[in-house]
């Protein structure tokens, strides 16, 4: 099994042909990239995705009655069954729907797309060919952020802390985690936010993405991956890592208030409470309450299935590092398979041995099996919620809830 399959929304497409000359293999119109392994336009890709996700192919009937209707730019909408069958014949597979939305690299400005704009310049620009529901779209260029992350993930650039040379795997993870957490402000010095504009939320996420990259690259096993594999790994787990770390820190700081009044340290400097709202108006025309409702269920699960157990367990810094490392390798391994799974299994064995030594030497605890089971139960809950949020984001794309696309869509998958 390949260790570097396509990522959930983008892949390293290497064609040197200009995007403006690429033709959709399904209908013959201008293609916008590799979708599910086939050069296709957005409309055909969206049609295939909707059909598979909603299992519509079981209901389609050939309008011509002979299963050989023409599918072209002028009549692609006439027979849905023949259009779907052509997608499959060309190589689109239902198995790829969840994680293989590819796009031609957007670092180059294209005639047939709206211009790419910096992430801090949210101005809606209509695609000439329109989108699924005719909404104006904006492409936010995150190539600068992407380059910064890739630079950190390349240890040849000098990001390895020499203090970690004599540490074991778990000690390295803990050291790198504490190095960042030492910057956490006390509650009285933090800003309480009642409203969080989505632009400010993305700014917070960007800083935390840098933190996750710096944490990852300290691990020698992670550095066994190629630079491309490291970046795919990073995109698979950074948001899950960030979310769990912030919940664990919030529990450490605020105790039961995390569950009772939803007090949450979204960053080292800012606090959110139950009354806060995120203002999504810059990236969607959907009412704010509707967008927040999309994520309400998963956030409720984070409070009840993650924060509550953390309150009871009160994990140490070493245990938190253990959980973060476990979930990172497991989620990245599930996405990438192959070499990442092999390395991840070895890392998890090393972590188990490191944690065993920690319990015996530092905590004088020989009977820790029950506690470890509870820690791993939290890890499994975080992973499950992470996957549910990914599905929510996929549905949001299908129904075009947001009027903004990122130049690397899969980086904000969940």
Lay out the secondary structure.
Layout: E1 33-35, E2 38-40, H1 42-53, H2 80-90, E3 116-118, E4 138-141, H3 143-153, H4 169-181, E5 191-197, H5 198-217, H6 227-254, H7 257-260, E6 264-265, E7 270-279, H8 288-313, H9 317-336, H10 338-361, H11 369-398, E8 404-406
Parallel strand pairs: 3-4, 4-8, 5-7
Antiparallel strand pairs: 1-2, 6-7
Helix pairs in contact: 3-5, 4-5, 4-9, 5-6, 6-8, 6-9, 8-11, 9-10, 9-11
What are its keywords?
Erythroid Transcription Factor GATA-1, Chain A; zinc; 414 residues; mainly alpha; Znf_hrmn_rcpt; Retinoid X Receptor; 11 helices; 3-stranded parallel β-sheet; globular; 3-stranded mixed β-sheet; DNA-binding; disordered N terminus
Architecture overview:
Residues 1-20 and 98-134 have low confidence and may be disordered. The chain folds into two domains: 1-105, 2-Layer Sandwich (Erythroid Transcription Factor GATA-1, Chain A), CATH 3.30.50; 144-412, Retinoid X Receptor (Orthogonal Bundle), CATH 1.10.565.10. Helix content is 48%, strand content 8%. It is mainly alpha-helical. It starts with 32 loop residues before the first strand and ends in an 8-residue tail after the last strand. It has helices at residues 42-53, 80-90, 143-153, 169-181, 198-217, 227-254, 257-260, 288-313, 317-336, 338-361, 369-398, and strands at residues 33-35, 38-40, 116-118, 138-141, 191-197, 264-265, 270-279, 404-406. Helix 6 packs antiparallel against helix 9 (317-336) and helix 9 packs antiparallel against helix 10 (338-361). The chain has eleven helices and eight strands. Strands 3-4-8 form a three-stranded parallel sheet, with no helix packed on it. This is Nuclear Hormone Receptor family. It holds the Pfam family Hormone_recep. Its main location: nucleus.
């Amino acid at each position: 099994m390949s260790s570097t399959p396509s990522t959930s929304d983008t892949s390293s497409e290497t064609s040197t042909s200009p995007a403006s000359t690429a033709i959709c293999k399904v209908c013959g119109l201008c293609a916008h990239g590799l979708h599910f392994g086939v050069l296709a336009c957005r409309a055909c890709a969206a049609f295939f995705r909707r059909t598979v996700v909603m299992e519509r192919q079981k209901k389609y009937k050939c309008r011509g009655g002979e299963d050989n209707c023409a599918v072209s730019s002028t009549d692609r909408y006439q027979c849905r069954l023949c259009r779907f069958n052509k997608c499959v014949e060309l190589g689109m597979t239902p198995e790829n729907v969840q994680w293989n939305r590819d796009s031609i690299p957007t670092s180059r400005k294209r005639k047939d797309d709206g211009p790419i704009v910096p992430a801090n310049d949210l101005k809606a620009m209509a695609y000439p060919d329109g989108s699924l529901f005719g909404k104006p779209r904006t492409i936010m260029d995150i190539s600068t952020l992407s380059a910064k992350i890739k630079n950190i993930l390349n240890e040849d650039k000098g990001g390895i802390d020499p203090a970690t040379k004599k540490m074991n795997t778990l000690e390295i993870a803990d050291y790198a985690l504490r190095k960042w957490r030492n910057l956490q402000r006390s509650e009285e010095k933090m800003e309480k936010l009642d409203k969080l504009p989505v632009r400010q939320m993305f700014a917070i996420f960007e800083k935390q993405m840098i933190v996750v990259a710096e944490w990852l690259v300290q691990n020698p096993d992670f550095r066994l991956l190629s630079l491309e594999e490291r970046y795919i790994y990073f995109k698979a787990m950074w948001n899950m890592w960030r979310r769990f770390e912030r919940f664990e820190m919030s529990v450490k700081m605020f105790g039961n208030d995390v569950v009772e009044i939803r007090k949450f340290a979204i960053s080292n400097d800012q606090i959110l409470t139950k009354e806060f709202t995120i203002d999504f108006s810059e990236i969607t025309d959907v009412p704010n309450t509707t967008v927040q409702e999309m994520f309400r269920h998963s956030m409720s699960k984070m409070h009840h299935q993650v924060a509550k157990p953390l309150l009871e367990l009160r994990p140490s810094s070493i245990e938190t590092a253990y959980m973060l490392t476990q979930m990172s390798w497991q989620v990245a391994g599930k996405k990438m398979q192959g070499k990442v799974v092999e390395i991840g299994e070895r890392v998890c064995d090393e972590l188990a041995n490191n944690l065993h030594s920690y319990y015996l030497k530092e905590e004088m605890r020989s009977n820790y099996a029950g506690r470890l089971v509870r820690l791993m139960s939290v890890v499994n809950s975080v992973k499950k919620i992470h996957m549910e949020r990914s599905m929510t984001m996929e549905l949001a794309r299908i129904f075009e809830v947001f009027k903004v696309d990122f130049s690397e869509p899969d980086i904000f998958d969940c």
